[in-house]
């Protein structure tokens, strides 16, 4: 064997040994077997944004990289309806959406948006985790190919604006921006408010120019848009509650091996209580910021408002008889019956 050949063999041995050491110390990057494209429109600081970030990190850790989660947040791929439809078609695999949108497919979901259905966040969470809501989720998965993995808070809603409102009669004749969804319009009409349908992005200007006397939103919506710059009062009606569901494509979910399905479900269950608590804690701080910016918070007797809004319940129960079961479940989960309030 020549010296040249020995030298070549020696170099090869060193090279192969070097690769072995690199693999030993650093490992070989494992290519993901499945990819989740996860899109949502909520911005940084929201519970949805934070949950998406945490979901990616925890699921990739839990599956040892078998699933890769690619995030498209802050509206990169559109609003709720666009991302939900893309998830239904399989273009995306995950998004967030709220019951009002789900009601386009399963009308019974509209019950979740009825005015004064819920007392507090504890009541809401009992409903979130109820068999009744899980049953609707199964129906939606079978009918639409969209599976709800879990629920997080989006917040109780309140009225705000530049008019001092201390009783039901003070709402009469005022013009308030309303989402175009039927339940919002009917709720405002029941309070003798004139609903003015406008895109949310026009609310700030509408208040500043006097096009509307006020609007309604959650603490997140009020804080994120600094609406204290164009408002004087927050009326603490808490007239509706909003929640968001974490949605996955049913076709994609069923394509996963059992252990990865379990990892997706477990990750959701782990994060739900964390994000829910985080949302509630953050809400108080956001309202304190509004107070620091000159907003006066008005406590109002909501019982006359609740009574006025019973006609909204009547309208929806007549239109969608199936929602009676969901309403009955919400009533059952109250700690104090309405008749005792």
Question: In summary, what is this structure?
Answer:
Helix content is about 50%, strand content about 15%. It contains 14 helices and 11 strands.
Question: Could you list some keywords that capture this structure?
Answer:
341 residues, alpha/beta, D-Maltodextrin-Binding Protein, domain 2, 2 domains, four-stranded mixed sheet, three-stranded antiparallel sheet, 14 helices, 17% strand, globular, disordered N terminus
Molecular structure report:
The structure is a single chain. This protein is of the alpha/beta class and 341 residues long. It folds into two domains: 157 residues, D-Maltodextrin-Binding Protein, domain 2; 122 residues, Bacterial extracellular solute-binding protein, family 7 (D-Maltodextrin-Binding Protein, domain 2, 3-Layer(aba) Sandwich). It contains 14 helices and eleven strands. A four-stranded mixed sheet has the order 8-5-9-11. A three-stranded antiparallel sheet has the order 3-10-4. Helix 2 runs antiparallel to helix 11. It is globular, with a radius of gyration of 25 Å. 37% of the residues are buried.
């Amino acid at each position: 064997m020549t010296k040249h050949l020995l030298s070549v063999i020696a170099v090869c041995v060193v090279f192969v040994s070097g690769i072995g050491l690199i693999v030993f110390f650093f490992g070989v990057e494992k290519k993901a077997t499945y990819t989740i494209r996860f899109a949502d429109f909520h911005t940084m600081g929201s519970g949805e944004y934070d949950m998406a970030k945490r979901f990616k990190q925890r699921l990739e850790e839990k599956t040892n990289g078998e699933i890769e989660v690619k995030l498209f947040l802050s509206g990169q791929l559109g609003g709720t309806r666009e991302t939900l439809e893309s998830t239904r078609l399989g273009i995306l695999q995950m998004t967030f959406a709220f019951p009002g949108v789900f009601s386009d497919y399963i009308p019974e979901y509209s019950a979740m948006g009825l005015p004064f259905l819920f007392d507090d966040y504890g009541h809401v969470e009992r409903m979130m985790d109820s068999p009744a809501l899980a049953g609707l989720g199964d129906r939606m998965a079978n009918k639409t190919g969209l599976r709800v993995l879990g629920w997080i808070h989006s917040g109780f809603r309140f009225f705000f604006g530049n008019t001092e409102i201390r009783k039901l009669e003070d709402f009469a004749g005022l013009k308030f921006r309303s989402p175009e969804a039927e339940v919002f319009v009917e709720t405002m009409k029941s309070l003798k408010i004139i609903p003015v349908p406008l895109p949310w992005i026009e609310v700030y200007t509408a208040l500043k120019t006097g096009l509307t006397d006020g609007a309604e939103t959650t603490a997140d919506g009020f804080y994120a848009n600094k609406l204290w710059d164009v408002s004087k009062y927050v009326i603490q009606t808490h007239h509706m509650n909003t929640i968001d569901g974490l949605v996955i494509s049913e076709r994609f979910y069923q394509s996963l091996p059992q252990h990865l399905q379990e990892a997706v479900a477990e990750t959701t269950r782990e994060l739900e209580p964390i994000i829910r608590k985080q949302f509630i804690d953050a809400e108080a701080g956001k309202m304190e910021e509004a107070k620091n910016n000159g907003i006066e918070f008005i406590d109002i007797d909501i019982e006359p408002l609740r009574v006025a809004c019973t006609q909204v319940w009547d309208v929806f129960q007549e239109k969608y008889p199936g929602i009676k079961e969901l309403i009955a479940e919400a009533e059952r989960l109250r700690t104090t019956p309405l008749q005792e309030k």
